[in-house]
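Onboarding guide, step 5: your first structure request.
Type a short instruction followed by the sequence, for example:

Predict the 3D structure of this protein.
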Amino acid sequence: MWTTSEAWRQWINIGSFPDHPWRSHLQRSALTLKGLTYSPTGALLAAATTSLPETPQGERNWDYRYAWVRDSTFALWGLYTLGLDREADDFFSFIADVSGINNGERHPLQVMYGVGGQRTLEEEELAHLSGYDGARPVRIGNGAYNQRQHDIWGTMLDSVYLHIKSHEAVPETLWPVLKAQVEEAIEHWREPDRGIWEVRGEPQHFTSSKVMCWVALDRGARLAMMHGEAKHAREWSAIADEIKADVLAHGVNDRGVFTQRYGDDALDASLLLVPLLRFLPPDDHRVRATVLAIADELTENGLVLRYRVEETDDGLIGEEGAFTICAFWLVSALVEIGELPRAKALCERLLSYSSPLKLYAEEIDAKTGQHLGNFPQAFTHLALINAVMHVIRAEEAEHQATFQPANH
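The system replies with C-alpha cells like these:
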C-alpha cells in the first residue's frame, strides 16, 4: 500500500500546480485522469462506469468504459496545462497501434476503442437488470463506435501539435498517422455527421464538426512545416481557409452567433470551443456574441445545457441535466472575452458542486445539484483544469497586464 501511495505522490509532484485556493481541485482532477488511464496500452477511459442515467429513471444510459479519441486527446490537453505530458506519448503509441501503422496496415481512426485496442464494441441491453434507481435500459458496449463524427481528426491533430510544438519535430513513426487524419478531414468535411454529441438522429451539418475539420487542416499544416513538408503545409493551409469561409458563411446567424448546425438558429455549447481552439480571436464580435448567447440563453439556473433537446434530433426522448464540461468551457470562454468576474463566479459555483472527493459525473441537475451520468467523468475533469487555469492566469494577468491562456 505504501508503494502504491508513493507512486501516486511522485506522479502528482511532477506537475506544476499554482499556489491558489483551487489547487486541490486541479490535483484531484489530474489524479482522476491518470486513474482513468489503462497503463498497458495508454488508453484513457471516458468514465469508469456504465449506464448511470443522465435523467433519473430515463433511457439516456450509456457505457463509457471505453477510450474515446476526443475525450482522450482533450484530457491530454488538460494534463499538458499542468505540466503532466508523459501520458501523451503512451496515448499516441496507442493510436499508432490501433491505426495499424505498426504492422503495415491502415485502419481509419474510429470514434472510440476498447482499452485493449478493440475496434468492435457492439451495444446490447441487459434486460434482466433494473438499472441504477430503476433507470433502464442497462447497456454494455456502445453503438456510437462506428458513427461518423468529423471532429475526431481535429482533436487528434490539435493534441499532437500542442505536445510537440515546443520540440518543433514530428516523430517519424507518427507522421503517417497524422497525414492520414488530415486526408480524412479533406475527404469528408463537406459531409454531414453525428457531431460531438453523438446524436442518434439523422446526420447534420454540425458547425462544431466543421470547426474541428478546420482545426485538423490548420494543425496539420503547422505539423507539416515542422516535418519539412512545405508543399503539404501550403495545400492544407489553403483548405483550412476554405473551411473557415464556409463556416462563417453558413454557421453564423443574423445575430452574429455561431449555431448548432447549418441553416438553423439552435444554440450548441460546443461552439464555446471557437475561441479556445483559436478558430477566431476572442475579440471577434461573433465570438463575444456566441459566448454571451450561450451564457444567457442555453442555461438552466446558471448551468449550461449542451443543447435544447426540443431543438435537436438526437434520437432520444426525455430531458437531461446540465453538461458540466460545457459550464467549465463557458468559464474559459468568458475569461477569453474579458468577462473575468462572471467567469470566476461561475467557476466558484461549479467547484461547490464537487463530491466530497472533488469528483464529478457527466452532468448536474440544475434544480437539485445532483450528479447525473457516468462517474467519474474524464470530460468534466479535463475542462475543470482548463477553466480553473484560465481564471488563475487571468487573475495573475491583472497584476502583470498580460494574459496567457491555459491552452495553445
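Each response can be followed by summary notes, for example: The first helix runs from residue 2 to 14.
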